[in-house]
Amino acid sequence: MPPSSQPQQAKLSSSMMPRPSGSEPPCGTARSYYHRGMSLVSEGSSFPNIPTSNADFISVDDGSARLRFMRLTTNAIVSDPNAMTRSGLPLAIMMAPFANLGPGEQPVPIVDFSAKQVGGPLRCERCHGYANPGFKFMSGGSQFQCNLCTHVNTTPTEHFSPISPATGLRMDADQRHELRLGSVDYIIGSPDYCIRPPQPPCYLFALDVSSGAISSGLSAFAIMSIRSAIGSNLLPGSNQGARIAIMTFDKGLHFFDARGTEDGKSVTTQYVPDVMDPFVPLGGDALFLTPKQALHAVDAAIETHGLSPNAQQQEKDGPTAAPIECSLASAFQAIKMAFMECGGKAFVISGSLPTAGVAKLERRGGGAIGGGEDREMGLLKEAMPNYEIIGCELAEVQASVDLFLAPSSVYIDAATLGRVPRACGGRMHLFTAFDPIRDGASLHRSLCVAASEPRAFEALLRVRTSPGLDVKGEYIGHFGRPQRGDDIAGPVFDASSTIGLEISVTSKLIADDRRGGNRYGGTPSLFDEACVQSATLYTDCLGRRCIRVHTMFAQKTTVLAEMFRHADVDATAAFLAKKASSAVLIGGTSFSKASEALTEKTAQAFYVYRKHCTTASLSGQLILPEALKVLPVMMLGLIKSAAFRKAALSMQSADAVTVDERAAALSFISCAKISEVAAMCYPRMWDITNLDKKAGVPLPPLADPMITNLAGEAASPRNPTKEPIALPNTLPLAAESLVDNKMLLVENAMQMVLWLGSQVDKKEAEEVIAQVGPGRLCIRAETAGSAALTKDISEKGKRIAKIINRVVAERRGLSRPQVVVRSAPGAGGEAKFLNPLLVEDQGSSHYSYVSYLRQIHKRVMDKMSNDSAQSDLQTWEMLNHGY
Length: 883
What we know:
By secondary structure, the protein is α/β, with parallel strands linked by helices. Among the domains are: 269 residues, Immunoglobulin-like (Sandwich), CATH 2.60.40.1670; 233 residues, Rossmann fold; 115 residues, Severin, CATH 3.40.20. The chain has 26 helices and 31 strands. Strands 5, 7, 11, 19, 21, 23 and 24 form a 7-stranded mixed sheet that branches. A 7-stranded mixed sheet has the order 15-14-13-12-16-17-18, with helices on both faces. A 4-stranded antiparallel sheet has the order 4-6-22-20. A hairpin with a 2-residue loop joins strand 29 and strand 30. The longest helix has 23 residues.
């Protein structure tokens, strides 16, 4: 495979730079299928065979888990431990055990062992690994050898099947999902897998009703969003016995008992004034209600706190009677007590700094203004350890919290408050200077998505590897380990929960001695592959105890170039980003040192590639491995993101980042999906003015509507109406793309910007944006009530709306979409919201893409002359300290 190379520095130009858009198919191209075998057999391909995380494709299970669930940073692992260490490329696996599948993809098959008489899943008696396509059966089927520890086991009677002399496979191979597919769900009935009897899921909504939250409009808007989520049955298990609790808090705690409402009784409100020693006055049967009862409790909360539209109008005409204090930490403690017996998921919406009850906070050092890196690093540290402790206590009772912070000001100490969701498997969402007109739709969407995503409760995850591999470190973002053992405790896993684990080669991998033949479909040949298996024990939304097993295989190689050839750039970037963000947020590493470590790690990998994998010797050439050719621009974009951008001495700087925004960005990266991290590293920008005729409509179905995967499983017939909406091809993230007669849409998973050039036709602009008040512009398709705003627009406007709707649906972290008009009154919008996303431009005290590549090239050549690889590895490894 010929490497990518750049000509001499004097001729380096931005138009020649590798970009993610270089691997995009033309707009409107039908989706293609992908399975692991395709990457291993297409030797002559000049492009990476692994689809990017934001690409449109259909992932097929061919005996190795689909990319939706697991991605290795490389799918070819160097057998020699020393060579692997010196490679400079991280070896890690990114896992999303309960990720949503794409349209047309087969669901994870279910194997039912709930009946006691049928035993349990087939497992190795030594390492307790689960059956997978790598198990090798022998002695006529009476024994099997585990590919995770090489132990030879006796096949239990209930799992015995003779081996076919013709194929060498078990006679029941086509019927045993766990022996031919990489992913499987076991339903189990044995009490050995249960801490307590499985039960339906429990949810709790807690809302800030202090005067600040009410006057900003947060309380009224959030309570209606809560009502919508419950009334629409968005909560998983709503129709199968799920229970819901409602509470509010200001200087005290309010609980609502709606048990008798179905018989005509009124809702009873219980008030707890002692927030220094909070408690739950209602038992579980009274606190946790049916969805119908919960709606009555919500209505009672609306009436109690005056959150109806009429009451809100009266509020504008006079001062509020609500207390100004907020007892958020006391609410967290009450939530822990409520979940003591059942566990579950809580959604907490707050707009005020905790000023009452336990763990009160104060504005630290001027709040939003950083004043330089050293001062800002001090503000990124937690103000007190109480919130981390509360988060750990929530995790111990199998409870998880998603925290929605929507202050009316620009500071709420997100760095401290964010410790609670981080410690218990939740997420933090920040809506700075909340305005219900501008931010209401984002809050509603984020809350509804979060409410609809829980998939697993009381979960415990363990990762096992084949001989020679070991999990050496973890950068898991928002989960923790129990006090004993190697398991990862996840009170609640949702569809977006992503875990990253670093893997080391501890001993020489056994050579692959296969000689042709079918390598897939659950054949014994997979026994020789390197293997990583994750098993998650959990209770599903129907109250059943289950085990979800994902097994991924990677080839072993003695050729270092193969490791680079089969690298996954998105998985690599995601792992590097998560490790760096954890080092800053938890380990106390400065973001400038973290940025330096990211650059050094990139240069180190390219140095190894140049030295050991190429024959080119001209110093004027920058040689990049084909699969990782866009890694430099992704690392540049990450360094320029709000998480790692250089600290501004003054908030008057156009690209200044507040402490809360930086804390939110770091927290977001630590728990984001791979596709979201990829968008953070290199945002996507589309021209929606001259829209391709194939954009904004469903992608065409495949010419062959059926496919049989290599494990023998037939896919469903393709339904053209359920194909994803086609997106336009992306543009380079540079100022040269900002043409005055164009409208551009940009998103980086946290932020969406619609940019209007100064010469855009007014009628075209009005099809995309709407004026909702004096000087207030919003994106029609994104705004609350978008159905009415997009009703009478043209066919092109409707296609643009579909594009925006698709982007919004895929990004649960999007907040505050901005409309930026070039040369509009009140200058600064373009500099503040758009320019920081143009990662290829130099910007304020940052590299441009061209200069960053030159910097990478210079470091590579310095390493070639000085052989400084070992010291540079130490620069990267320092990110482990303190985490």
